[in-house]
Amino acid sequence: MKLRDMKTFDEVLTEDLKDPEFRARWERTALARAVANRVIGYRTQRGLSQGELAEQLGMKQPQIARLESAEHNPTIDTLIKLVNALDIEFVIDIHPAKKAAKLVNKRAQTTAAVSTTTVEETELLVAAA
Q: Which structural domains are found in the chain, ordered by start?
């Protein structure tokens, strides 16, 4: 198969999101994906291995691998540990989908590292800096 014949990530994702089971899992792990992207970005920008980052955070390497897999939403305790040890910031807003976010500023709503998803009747916005 030639490169030009291959589907883009967005095309594959759009197709996969038609499956209700996949869509439900995708929506449930929005926070996990946003955190994973920020952690991976931090680690790779600094040339750190998962083990080195784990040591910096006072964690074990498998915990970093789990975070980076984006399969499970991190706990508040884990987010606090990331924020304090890595000097990064997360903004998480959860509000009814039919209403606009009131507590989040425009920067958080438009930053490049933002994930917005709707789960049932709720919208989840995650921004990372």
A: 3-128 (1.10.260.40)
pLDDT tier for residue 111 given thresholds of 50, 70 and 90: low
The sheet carrying 114-119 orders its strands as 90-96, 122-128, 114-119
Say what percent of the chain tops pLDDT 90: 38
In order of 64, 80, 103, the CA distances from 60 in angstroms are: 7, 16, 35
How would you class 56 by CB atoms within 10 Å of its CB: exposed for 0-12, middle for 13-18, buried for 19 or more?
A: middle
Task: Please state the φ and ψ torsions of residue 100, each to the nearest 5 degrees.
Answer: -75, 150
**What pLDDT sits at residue 10?**
85
- Residue 82 confidence (pLDDT) above 70: yes
User: What is the reported pLDDT for 112?
Assistant: 55
